[in-house]
Amino acid sequence: MLEVSPEIEKKINDILNKYIEGEGNVISLLQDAQETFGYIPENVVDWFSKKLDIPESRFFGIATFYAQFHLKPRGKNIITACCGTACHVKGSEKLISTASRELNLKGDEDTTEDGEITFEKVACLGTCSMAPVVIINKKMHGKMTTEKLAREIKSITKAKK
Amino acid sequence: MGPGGIASSGADVISTFESELKKVKVDALIEEGCSLHKVGCFGLCSKDVLVDLEINGNKTTYQYVKPNMVQRIVQEHIINNKPILEWTTDEDYQNFYKKQVKVVLSDCGKVDYDSIDSYISISGYRATEKVLKTMSPEEVIEDIKKSGLRGRGGAGFPTGIKWEACRKVESQQKYIICNADEGDPGAFMDRAVIEGNPHAVIEGMIIGAYAIGADKGYVYIRAEYPLAVERLTLAINQARKKGFLGKNISDTGFSFDIKIKLGAGAFVCGEETALIVSIEGQRGMPRAKPPFPVYKGLWGKPTIINNVETLANIPYIIRNGAQWYSSYGTEKSKGTKVFALTGKIKNTGLIEVPMGITLREIIYDIGGGIEGGKAFKAVQTGGPSGGCIPVDMLDLNVDYESLAKAGSIVGSGGMIVLDEDDCMVNVAKYFLQFTQSESCGKCVPCRIGTKRLLEILDRITKGLGKVDDIEILEKLSSDVKATSLCGLGQTAPNPVISTLKYFRDEYETHIKDKKCPAKVCKDLLTYFIMEATCTGCVACMRACPAGAITGEKKKPHVINQEICIKCGACFDVCKFKAVEKE
Ligand SMILES: Cc1cc2nc3c(=O)[nH]c(=O)nc-3n(C[C@H](O)[C@H](O)[C@H](O)COP(=O)(O)O)c2cc1C
Ligand code: SF4
Ligand code: FES
């Protein structure tokens, strides 16, 4: 049912055991799963669902309720724009449209076609004094401008080629 | 060093200091006792990285420190004892601190967040020992009641009274939860407190647990705050090692331990009943109250939920006395409050002020006024549940009652300053976008109501507003407020109501004249190039992502309005102010 390497199998078994021994918390289980896979793969949910005899809908109900969970694989590079209030009044909307344009993202898409870059929005990173803030591959950039963001994105796409 | 410092390469500054100091130490030029502390947020984030240097009791503070400045500081100041005056902090820095009173933040920036010994050396865990060894739970509750402390999570409920109610419930098992979900999207007080002074929060939880009779505690903290989680985890482990957490604390027979639960990114989970089911591992949907969590909380047991800042106040109140605490503030709002001052203001950062201070003092004396000489327009307090306060109310006192009367709330402590370039309809729309997408969907007024409110605001900002839209907004707002199940829905219309109250003319201009007075709403703008000022430098042409600008070098350019996507790139890039918007 689940074809994975022994290494990964050990990992999901560990998650399962932690769930059984702990308080039996589905959120923590999904957090651990996402930590392992980078997202919540459908067949992994299926596996847990059968092992634990909990309907898949419970898992997906939770995974879709909380913004933290991703049901699709994410890009190799992650760009996160803060759209909290302080960043909003300092022009985060412009940054967001710049990024969507540069990455050619349409509608609700958040990952480029080639799976290279995921662009996400988040509410307040707690660094409002540096607004507007963008995180590019875990590095925080304060006082971001549209030009600088476009340049950063270009340097990522170029590095790939 | 808080998040602002890290974003401004604080870690690099520290490591450069370390290596530079090591170099000179090898040369045996530095005397012993010169140690490098890492401390939490200093507060004035816009001047990051700030470095305090103390030599024989003389303190000097440097601002905007960059790694490449470190060597000169070490050489000239530390070795030759000649401070580099042009790099030290200026008048702004002094004003920033003058009107502040620090309680919760008093040790942030002083204690080394990594070290419990550093906290203990400044009377840390003294309050815990005093409570556990010399006070009865009732005496603790009496002290907190007398201090007048009210919940800092938003609602402002008196903490002592809440504890007393929970104390009185008979139960074998009780819980205390620290609410560190900090959902207001523009506030970072709780984050700074946890990162800068995690042990104060732990102490608050121990004392609260003792007062109500709980032996287990949870901290529910946002996963978006990895640094805070890391420092808190470390602090809890240190406290356990020193015997302040665990079985039989300090040989008093009292046992208590804390677990960390990571929130998974849902604003509504800051609401207490939703937070509880989220800890239990379910979708975080609120339920009707009563029963209040004090009677029926986590796993159905009596539970106290307190905000981070509320709890961090506790050890200071116990140590210095209820009377000392209540000497700050107004008659009904005692003590101090931490605010995250941001937006269009000169000195952004974290401030702690006595309740009752005026908005003017905060914005002009502490905040240094509006950035770039622009005109002040409004200050937004209380985040998505709060409102905007206009310029003619700047002398308003900041306390629970006064702000509520003005149509806003103290809230958790976000304070965002808006200037003439901000459109109030856009601000209202921004908050509704937030609450609408964060609505859990359990009850109809909030699920559908916020959606309709947002749609109306959206069409107003697009120039498609109808004449009776203002009336519909008002009616719908009051319905949503009155009939929603939880605090999210009950407060979601506040930003609309307060902007309608104080900035009605802006709504009217959008609807009737199809114009945005602050020139923010994209669909109501046109960008054009002034022939007389344009030098033909082609910068805008290069910047325009739509290829809407044409023209020859050294000759005035023009924007093709059909192609223009109104992104404003040309406006931002023009050095000669030749691009205008209308
Ligand atoms: C939608 C919503 C979000 C909330 N978010 C938070 C939050 O992020 N942090 C917090 O401390 N309180 C939050 N609260 C308030 C809590 O429900 C609760 O009143 C508070 O944690 C109690 O602690 P206190 O008495 O110490 O203020 C929120 C309330 C609502 C309705
Ligand atoms: S008011 Fe909104 S957030 Fe609260 S229960 Fe109803 S739908 Fe959910
Ligand atoms: S609003 Fe962007 S960091 Fe707070």
Account of the 3D structure:
The complex is a heterodimer of chains A (161) and B (582). Chain A has 161 residues and is of the alpha+beta class. Chain A has 2 domains: 60 residues; 83 residues, Glutaredoxin. Chain A is 50% helix and 11% strand. In chain A, strands 2-1-3-4 form a 4-stranded mixed sheet, with helices on one face. The longest helix of chain A has 16 residues. Chain A starts with 5 loop residues before the first helix and ends with a helix. The model of chain A has no long low-confidence stretch (mean pLDDT 90). In chain B, helix 6 packs parallel to helix 10, helix 6 crosses helix 13 and helix 19 packs antiparallel against helix 21. By secondary structure, chain B is of the alpha/beta class. In chain B, strand 4, helix 11 and strand 5 form a beta-alpha-beta unit. Chain B has 5 domains: 87 residues, Glutaredoxin, CATH 3.40.30.10; 211 residues, Rossmann fold, CATH 3.40.50; 84 residues, Ubiquitin-like (UB roll); 90 residues, de novo design (two linked rop proteins); 56 residues, Alpha-Beta Plaits (2-Layer Sandwich), CATH 3.30.70.20. In chain B, 41% of the residues lie in helices and 13% in strands. Chain B is globular. Chain B has 24 helices and 15 strands. In chain B, the strands form 5 sheets. Chain B has a 5-stranded mixed sheet. At the A-B interface, helix 2, helix 4, helix 5 and helix 6 of A face helix 1, strand 7, strand 11, helix 17 and helix 24 of B. The complex binds flavin mononucleotide, iron/sulfur cluster and FE2/S2 (inorganic) cluster (FES).
